[in-house]
Design brief:
The chain is of the alpha+beta class. It contains eleven helices and 14 strands. The strands form four sheets. It has a seven-stranded antiparallel beta sheet, sandwiched between helices. Strands 7-6-14 form a three-stranded mixed beta sheet, with no helix packed on it. It has a two-stranded antiparallel sheet with strand order 3-8.
């Protein structure tokens, strides 16, 4: 699309949809606030915020809680993966790294031969087989949580736990959701000599004006705006203090306990900040060539192109196919940083269009970029589990309302 054509399309949207058209979207968020805390939505075009609205309590367990605000900092969990992907793609743009560079170049723990988890024997002990296939950036797909905390346990911010987590498939053969982006974060640190926080601040957050985005919001003024993460007991309908209800997620909330920033799920941000990233990517995808772009045009395009080998998509489809209303193998794929919706027709008959890219986080956050319609959307809440029916219903209602009002 030419810059002139894009501007014409964006101008037409602004004229077509005055402010009152967004009231139905705001009402959905306001109505959900009785059940969900930390609600936020930011919808934007490539160069404008079309809608920004917040609702719900800062702490749903506190009857006197203040409301959620635009600067409320929340746990963005697995939506961190896009940031880590942008960072590694920047290194591909500016160094001699490629997508086929062996990971062991900066991560000696991944030198071949590698062990692959192969089930358990009759005594319950883990079995392994061996592979000599190198893991590269494009093949960082197969991982597994295994064993006790301290040995082979991910999401704990302890390097020893990560490196003792074995892969579970031959590299490059099947999509598996796991700690691939955590390894990428360590790769970036070792390749640049900077912490992941320092690298992202300099090369992503500061250039985009993402002032409330960090792996370490636990001290100083930011700590006063950091929303508590709560657990929703779906049987009782009551909220609980989060302790051990979700053992797969053990991210500490004390700076001293974080040995390394988790590139797969450790970022804290705001809906407005994260929208800045999405808006930048959409703008430079639709109209490439900006001198301030984070990525070169061809590299940025890779975020919207399928990357999984033939047959590898089944793992992704099994995981999130129902949520995307895309249950046939090939309806979904993974790019160099996001899940791609490739099914013909809008998601669910009403939502994001073919070619959209996005992902979600364990605390309920979700985002997508829809190049076909020229919009991005960020949704926030901050509870576990993210699969709670009340969260899913709110997201679906919002997506439908957004497309009815703004597309």
């Amino acid at each position: 699309m030419s810059p002139q054509a894009y501007k014409k399309k964006a101008d037409a949207r602004r004229k077509k949809h005055p402010g009152y058209a967004c009231e139905s979207i705001k009402r959905i968020l306001d109505d959900a606030a009785a059940q969900l805390p930390g609600l936020g939505i930011v919808v934007s075009s490539a160069d404008d915020v079309l809608l920004e609205h917040y609702a719900g309590k800062f702490d749903i367990m506190d009857p006197t809680s203040s409301p959620t605000k635009a600067d409320t900092i929340q746990f963005f969990a697995s939506t961190t993966k896009l940031l880590t992907s942008v960072a590694i793609l920047q290194l591909i743009d500016t160094t001699d790294l490629t997508l086929d560079t062996p990971a062991s170049r900066y991560l000696p723990q991944l030198k071949t031969p590698l062990r692959i988890f192969d089930g358990v024997d009759e005594t319950g002990a883990a079995k392994y087989r061996v592979t000599n296939t190198e893991i590269t950036v494009t093949e960082w797909k197969a991982t597994l949580r295994e064993g006790e905390k301290g040995r082979g346990f991910v999401n704990s911010c302890v390097i020893d736990n990560l490196v003792n987590t074995p892969i579970v498939e031959e590299p490059g053969t099947l999509y598996q959701y796991g700690n691939n982006a955590e390894w990428l974060g360590l790769f970036i640190q070792n390749a640049t000599g900077q912490s992941l926080e320092a690298y992202m601040q300099k090369h992503i957050f500061v250039p985009l004006g993402m002032k409330n985005t960090t792996f370490f919001p636990f001290d100083g003024e930011q700590a006063t705006r950091l929303m508590p993460l709560r657990w929703l007991n779906e049987e009782s309908g009551e909220y609980e203090v989060l302790t051990t209800q979700f053992p797969g997620l053990t991210l500490p909330r004390v700076t001293a306990d974080i040995e390394y920033a988790v590139g797969g799920g450790g970022i804290y941000s705001t809906a407005a900040d994260y929208s800045r990233l999405l808006r930048h990517l959409l703008q430079n995808y639709l109209v490439p060539g900006s001198p301030s772009a984070l990525l070169k045009p061809a590299t940025l395009v890779s975020l919207f192109k399928p990357s999984l080998p033939l047959g590898a998509q089944i793992g992704l489809t099994d995981m999130v196919g129902e949520w995307y209303n895309a249950t046939e193998v090939g309806d979904l794929d993974w790019s160099t940083g996001m899940c791609l919706y490739l099914k013909d027709g809008p998601r669910g008959g009403f939502g994001r269009r073919t070619g959209s890219a996005g992902w979600a986080g364990a605390g309920g956050t979700e985002y997508f970029i829809d190049p076909a319609t020229g919009i991005t959307m960020v949704f926030t809440t901050n509870i576990l589990p993210h699969s709670a029916e009340v969260i899913k219903a709110c997201k679906l209602n919002l997506e439908k309302a957004v497309y009815e009002a703004l597309v």
